[in-house]
Write a structure and sequence with these properties.
Length: about 400
């Protein structure tokens, strides 16, 4: 007999409670101010670090919680649902997700010993640099090159939409050590490096320019320029030319954690909409009594619960080193759709008042829209399901 248990493990429930207790001290106005002032949520970040909630995926021997992606996803969802929504909750992806989880799985003994304790404590932070202006979502087509020169590699290229460079001590940088045109198979020839950002900036080998954004301004995103950047060969994460193996273990967790972020954002939008629908009276009754208002909100609730099931399944599969690409893509697709529909329903519920910045609806709407195009477009997620899962012919 096969038993299926849909309850969260005690470890995840503890995370949900601990992160939730911290977030409960910061109301919606706090997150509105962070967005308006374009500033990192320093107060929340400091409390998460103090409570040990940044090192969930760091092995216990390095001062972390020894847990996995499921706990990280629950933490991200809880943070987003508290009022941070999708944009601000991305702060949790940069270091616990990109940095700690990746190094715990793929870092050398020296890298793990040097960096994991500081990542767990929040003493250092990380960012992730993959996307390029010309390659876009085609990650295999990146052209940032790394060539061996003695004990170092020399890196040249550009990256775009790199979030959190300003705060990062270390950057996980994806390069080509074999040009894409020469690589057989195409996934060969990719190499991931750890780059010390402050040192590279001081040497004039790495520079960045912030990109003005319509939302998610608690975490600035940037153009990054790499000019004869020298990186020690000891800074390779995983193996030279085999970086695709590391990359998949970054991209699948990224999609899962951003699905968690979107799901929390959907919860916020639904909560805001329901509250307004209960309080706002027109024609002598609360507008929530009208099916035109109530039914779209009920549909959103159903979609949130469905997306959450796939989110937890994807994270659970990753933690058990089971194939999770399909689950991660479905989780990202459905959670982002739920977030957008929730924000749109909240906007419609508020009517003209949705335009007022006294309400959080505008922030929730811009946050939710991100998920339909980043870090991978909805169309590419659907293309994956069509070709890789359903076996339909490729269009290219």
């Amino acid at each position: 007999m096969i038993e299926v248990d849909f309850t969260l493990p005690e470890s995840a429930l503890t995370v949900q409670q601990g992160v939730g207790d911290i977030c409960a001290r910061y109301d919606m106005d706090y997150w509105q101010r962070c967005e308006a002032e374009k500033r990192w949520p320093d107060e929340v970040w400091a409390e998460l670090a103090k409570g040990g909630w940044l090192g969930l995926a760091v092995p216990e021997e390095f001062g972390g919680g020894g847990q996995g992606l499921l706990e990280l996803a629950v933490a991200t969802e809880t943070l987003a649902a508290s009022g941070a929504a999708g944009g601000s909750a991305f702060t949790y992806v940069l270091t616990p997700g990109f940095g700690a989880l990746t190094l715990a799985r793929h870092g050398s003994d020296e890298q793990r010993a040097a960096l994991l304790p500081k990542l767990a404590s929040g003493e250092i932070e990380t960012c992730f640099a993959l996307t390029e202006p010309d390659a876009g979502s085609n990650s295999l087509a990146i052209t940032t090159s790394a060539r061996r020169d003695g004990d170092d590699y020399v890196v040249n290229g550009q990256k775009i939409w790199i979030t959190g460079v300003q705060r990062a001590t270390w950057m996980l940088l994806v390069t080509r050590t074999i040009p894409a045109a020469e690589a057989r198979p195409r996934t060969n020839g990719m190499t991931v490096f750890l780059v010390n950002v402050p040192e590279a900036v001081a040497a004039g080998q790495l520079s960045y320019r912030p990109i003005p954004k319509m939302g998610a301004n608690t975490t600035p995103s940037n153009m990054v320029f790499l000019d004869d950047l020298r990186v020690p060969a000891s800074s390779v994460v995983g193996q030279v030319d085999q970086g695709a193996l590391v990359l998949w273990d970054i991209l699948n967790p990224e999609r899962i954690l951003l699905a968690a972020s979107a799901l929390g954002g959907a919860e916020v939008a639904l909560r805001v909409a329901v509250s307004y629908a209960k309080e706002r009276e027109v024609f002598g009754r609360a507008i929530g009594a009208n099916q035109a208002i109530a039914f779209p909100l009920a549909q959103v609730k159903a979609k949130i619960e469905l997306a959450r099931l796939m989110l937890y399944k994807a994270a659970w599969s990753f933690d058990r080193q089971l194939p999770c690409g399909t689950e991660a893509n479905i989780a990202k697709l459905t959670a982002s759709q739920a977030a957008w529909e929730a924000a749109d329903a909240a906007f419609q519920t508020h009517g003209g008042m949705a335009y007022s910045l006294e309400y959080p609806v505008a922030r929730l709407l811009t946050d939710a829209r991100i998920g339909k195009v980043a870090p991978v477009t909805e169309e590419l997620l659907l293309n994956y399901l069509a070709t890789q899962v359903l076996g339909l012919p490729r269009s290219f």
